[in-house]
Amino acid sequence: MSLKGRTAFVTGAGGGVGEGIALALGKAGANVVVAARRLETGEPVAARIREGGGEAICVQTDVADEQSVFAAIGKTVSTYNGLDILVHNALSGRATDRTPIADAPEDLFDDVVATGSRATFWCVKAALPHLQRGKGRVVLLLAHGGVRGHGSLSIYGVAKGMQRGNLKALTWELGGRGVSINAIVPVALTDGMARDFERRPGEYERQAARSALGYIGKPEEDIGGAAVFFASDAARYVTGQTLFVDGGVYML
After folding, report:
1. Which one is predicted more confidently, 94 or 25?
2. Would you call 204 a catalytic residue per the annotation?
3. In DSSP terms, which residues pair with 86 in a beta bridge?
4. Quick one: which H or E segment has residue 137?
5. 248 inside domain
6. CATH number at residue 45
7. Which one of the listed residues 156, 204, 237, 250 is annotated catalytic?
């Protein structure tokens, strides 16, 4: 599943699942553009890819801002003479606030939807003219909340549900242009989750027990591996699919 010679743009790649995907794509040979809202988080990820022998740059990007997205895609294309892979992973820092709908402020809804569904629109719109020139791939990062719902996470569920609707509609529009689009629903042990587990003895074991495999996935090896698959020629006839990379926590 070599990605040598291809260029990938990964949003929210300054940490967590986005970082893991960026590192995996770099190891597979792709030129990686680490799109992060803050350079201080994104540049170290790009540096890790370069230290491992890969090619990467960091571009400051606010996915909720149309001009910022188009500028970042433009920088990607001018640097690497094209764009082949778009991974939209960025998530509002407020997305998982456990706020009942009766108490949720309007700005929370706007913020979460802006980095989810609206940002999907901007990212695909900016990238499509370049993706359709080759073996274009789009990968969205979704969540369990957008499929089966979670209590007190209704806004997050709405945003992710909207993205899944985007996926289904875009499958047909992009397919006619030779571009595939798929989604990953991950469960991964991010740094933030690990810090939370340190404060809550036994929580890792409780969460790991939800998985049929008995552990929580790793951002690079497990989630990143699925992203590499979708970005590669091995998935050239796969589109419109949602893959749960969660150790069997949820099964359709």
Report:
1. 25
2. no
3. 9, 138
4. strand 137-141
5. no
6. 3.40.50.720
7. 156
